[in-house]
């Protein structure tokens, strides 16, 4: 049944990322002077992502109930009320669903253009509450709901959601209408890519700092990276992130300057990268190609890789970190048993 637990967690982090990325696109990545159709498409897309989050929240409750009770699928209905009303997870889940309900109210209110700015702000705060609930009921919450680990894990999830989610929003919601306007709105296309690159860069900096902390707390030693299943899955995740970073860097330092030149701006070679051997050849080659179409395809590929990164994170969520395993092995047998029951 572990496949269902992983699938429910994956659906949850995918939905959170899609919501965050769409809100970031509405508030920042797509500029305010863009044609109104972008705002309409993005706001409608936000409703779809909230629907995904609502369904994922239900799946997550079923998944946790199955984990806690050990009951088969057919009997899970009898345990759901107990988990919701009597467990710590159920308490956090109820607060989470209140935040999801607030998201729906914000989405409805945001269809009035004069309310959209405030609705987006409140929706962002509600999403932060959802993210916190996600971290508080995972490994980070073992030390307490409001422990340092929960706050750092929440920040890590937020950074991941901003990076991966903005790629999702660009691929699904922004690029289809932008393709039709690309030749007429070249400056808009270049501006969108520049803003996306800035958002991704800031998010990646947050991910690196918080990810190092989470990795050390989970592994406990460098050797655990290759001596444990948890560590090997983490290595796969890191390889996927490195691939995404390479693609994003290529877009940032090669394609984005070419897009700006395509949009009518001057060529601005990067002061550091342009000194590398063969860099000017790459710049000229990038300009000769259909730079907008290739940039879009690169973002599509990054989106697919991001989905697999979130899948690896879901698998890690349901694995036992080596540091926890060592701590449990050092406890007397009765304490180990009680620790397992409490989890």
Please describe what this structure looks like.
Helix content is 81%, strand content 0%. With 343 residues, the chain is mostly helical. It has one domain (2-342).
Structure keywords:
343 residues, mainly alpha, 13 helices, 81% helix, globular, disordered C terminus
Quick description:
With 343 residues, the protein is mainly α. Helix content is 81%, strand content 0%.
Taken as a percent bin, the fraction of beta residues is under 5%
Number of strands: 0
Oligomeric state of shown chains: single chain
Q: Shape from CA axes?
A: globular
Total domain count = 1
In which range does the helix fraction lie? over 70%
The overall average pLDDT, rounded, is: 87
Helix-strand category: mainly alpha
- Termini distance? 17 Å
Task: Indicate the radius of gyration in whole angstroms.
Answer: 22 Å
Largest sheet: none
Unreliable parts: 333-343
**Element-level helix/strand string:** HHHHHHHHHHHHH
How many helix segments? 13
């Amino acid at each position: 049944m572990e496949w269902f637990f992983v699938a429910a967690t994956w659906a949850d982090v995918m939905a959170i990322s899609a919501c965050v990325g769409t809100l970031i696109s509405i508030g920042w990545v797509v500029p305010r002077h863009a044609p109104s159709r972008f705002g309409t498409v993005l706001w409608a897309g936000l409703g779809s992502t909230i629907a995904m989050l609502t369904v994922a929240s239900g799946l997550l409750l079923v998944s946790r109930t199955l984990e806690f009770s050990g009951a088969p699928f057919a009997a899970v209905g009898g345990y759901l009320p107990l988990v919701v009303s009597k467990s710590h997870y159920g308490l956090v889940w109820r607060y989470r669903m209140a935040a999801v309900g607030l998201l729906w109210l914000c989405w409805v209110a945001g269809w009035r253009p004069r309310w959209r700015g405030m609705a987006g702000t409140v929706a962002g705060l509600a999403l932060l509450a959802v993210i916190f609930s996600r971290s508080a009921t995972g490994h980070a919450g073992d030390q307490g709901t409001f422990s340092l680990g929960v706050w750092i894990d929440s920040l890590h999830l937020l950074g991941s959601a901003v990076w991966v989610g903005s790629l999702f929003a660009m691929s699904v919601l922004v690029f289809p209408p932008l393709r039709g306007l690309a030749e007429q709105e070249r400056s808009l296309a270049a501006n969108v890519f520049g803003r996306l690159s800035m958002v991704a860069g800031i998010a990646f900096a947050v991910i690196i700092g918080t990810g190092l902390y989470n990795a050390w707390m989970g592994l406990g030693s460098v050797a655990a990276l290759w001596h444990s299943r948890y560590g090997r899955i983490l290595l796969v995740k890191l390889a996927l992130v490195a691939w995404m970073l390479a693609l994003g860097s290529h877009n940032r330092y090669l394609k984005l300057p070419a897009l700006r030149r395509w949009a009518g701006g001057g060529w601005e070679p990067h002061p550091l990268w342009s000194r590398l051997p063969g860099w000017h050849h790459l710049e000229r080659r990038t300009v000769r190609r259909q730079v907008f179409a290739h940039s879009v395809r690169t973002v599509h590929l990054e989106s697919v890789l991001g989905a697999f990164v979130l899948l690896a994170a879901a698998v890690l969520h349901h694995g036992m970190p080596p540091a926890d395993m060592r701590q449990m092995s050092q406890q007397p047998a009765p304490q180990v048993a009680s620790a397992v029951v409490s989890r």
